[in-house]
Amino acid sequence: MDSDLEPSPWKYLPFELGESENLENYEPGGFHPVHLGDVYDDDDDDEGGGGRYRVAHKLGFGGFSTVWLARDALASRWVAVKIVAARESPTYNYGAASCTTAAIADSRLFAAVEREFWLDGPNGRHLCLVSPVLGPDLARLSNGIYARIALQFAL
After folding, report:
1. Residues 49-81: pLDDT tens digits?
2. What structural domains and CATH numbers belong to the chain?
3. Is the whole-model pTM more than 0.85?
4. Cα–Cα distance measured from residue 114 to residue 105, given in angstroms and rounded to the nearest whole number
5. Distance (Å, whole) CA 36 – CA 54
6. Quick one: which of 82, 97, 124, 155 has the fewest CB in 10 Å?
7. What would the DSSP string read from start to end of 23-82?
8. Is 82 annotated as ligand-binding?
C-alpha cells in the first residue's frame, strides 16, 4: 500500500471550536486582531487621550465582524464594540441600527448604534460601531432548551 497521501482540502474542526471564528479571516482585508486589554478610539475629542474603549471580553462574531465587551472610560459604563472586517467596512450598511427615531432609540429591544469610529490596523481600516450591551441573542438563550419559547420572550 502506498503511504504517500495527498493533502486533503478538508479541515477538521472539533465541535468545541465551532464557537470560534475562522482564523483565516485574520488576513489583509479581514478581521482586526484584538487582544484583551486593548484600548481603542484615541479620538482627540476625548478628554485625557489614550483611548476610550478598553476590551474586556469577546461577545461574538459573524461573517463580517467581531463583537467585544469594552469599558467606556469616558462614560464609565460597559458597551459592545463591533469591529467590521476591513474589506466590508467601506460599504457596511448597518441599516436600521443607524436610525435615530426616538421610538426606536428608546426601545430596549433594538441595538442602536450610539457612536462609530475608524480603526487602522495590520489588516486594513475597520469601521467600529459602539452599542449598549443588551445581553445574549435568542439563539444563545434557547441553546439547550427543547421546549417552545413563549411569545412574550421571543419578541
Report:
1. 569 999 999 999 988 999 999 999 999 999 999
2. 19-154 (3.30.200.20)
3. no
4. 9
5. 8
6. 155
7. GGGSSTTSPPP--TT-EE---TTSTT-S-SEEEEEEEEE-SSEEEEEEEETTTTEEEEEE
8. yes
